[in-house]
What does this fold into?
Amino acid sequence: MLKPRQAVVQMAPYSPPTGKREDKVRLDFNEHTVGCSPKVIEFLRENLTAARLTMYPEYTEAMPELAAFFGVSTDEVMLTNGTDEAIQVLVNTFVDAGDDVVLLKPSYAMYRFYVDVAGGIVREVEYTLAEDLTFPLAAVRAAIRKDTRLVMIANPNNPTGTGVELDDLRRVLESAPGAAVLVDEAYFEFSGKTTLPWIREYPNLFVSRTFSKVYGMAAMRCGCLFSSAENIRWTHKAQSPYSVNMLAALAARAAVRDREHVEKWVSEVLAARELVCDGLRKLGIKFFKSEANFVLFQAGERAIPIRDALRERGVLVRDRSYEIPGCVRVTIGTREQMRRFLEELETVWTR
Ligand SMILES: Cc1ncc(COP(=O)(O)O)c(C=O)c1O
It folds into this structure.
């Protein structure tokens, strides 16, 4: 029998539910619920040739285009295989076995996943119900030590949906001069709050963005990691050279060209989020203030039965009661989809 590394033996398995989702209303993974810009598909069709597939991917056209879109220079950005790879590369760059890492709880599961694989020591600061799941600034600052190597914060946070004030992030950055601080802005477009322009001000800041959410390309696995040119030189050393495939690099270029598609989606989601919040209020269901394309609500002891009953009716939502008692998370799609969600929820809630 082969024996894996101790760090792997000790990890809790992470298995998000997958499969049989295609014919459902998918409000369980915070994806786009309709689709990416048709211009992305068109661009892929035009550029997909057998000759291109023979070559390892080249990023010489994508990099300047993406850097210009994000307002950085090409040496301040790294293209990644989704945010997940950005997290992995950061961990590989900064965290040795036994190193200290500060995370929030609950937050995006892959932070802990990669630190666990590396054998780093995770200390978690909790978002509490008593504070309405708002960012626990004082506790985060208190948790950061001189030997802390990495801090990872999602803004807005998943699964709480709550946003972090920019001033609070400044204070975290200033409390952690010796640590790499990742601000994961996967849902930035829905909140409008970003620390991206600060990469020239704070030498410990890393910012990530993704094409999986507002751009509707989760299947492509494409994201960006930003920091000072000096930091990006280090992270490049820890990244495999062809981890972003050619189709993803093409799709990202076409996606940023169609700003209108993104703007329209953001306004649709924000209107639909209002609708959902009103609907939850009418049903007397408590929810948390969201700055993202999802809302976390309290179903109490009925969290799992409600999720299951909705699934039977063709609507997928995500149970989060294992990390916040009684909570269920619903992704926001179009107003039409959310009316359907509210109708089904009312039926299962009031029966
Ligand atoms: C906070 C956060 N970061 C990153 C991701 C994943 O991003 P990607 O698809 O780019 O790996 C998610 C997905 O749910 C998320 O919630």
Summary: The two ends are 52 Å apart (CA to CA). The chain has 14 helices and twelve strands.
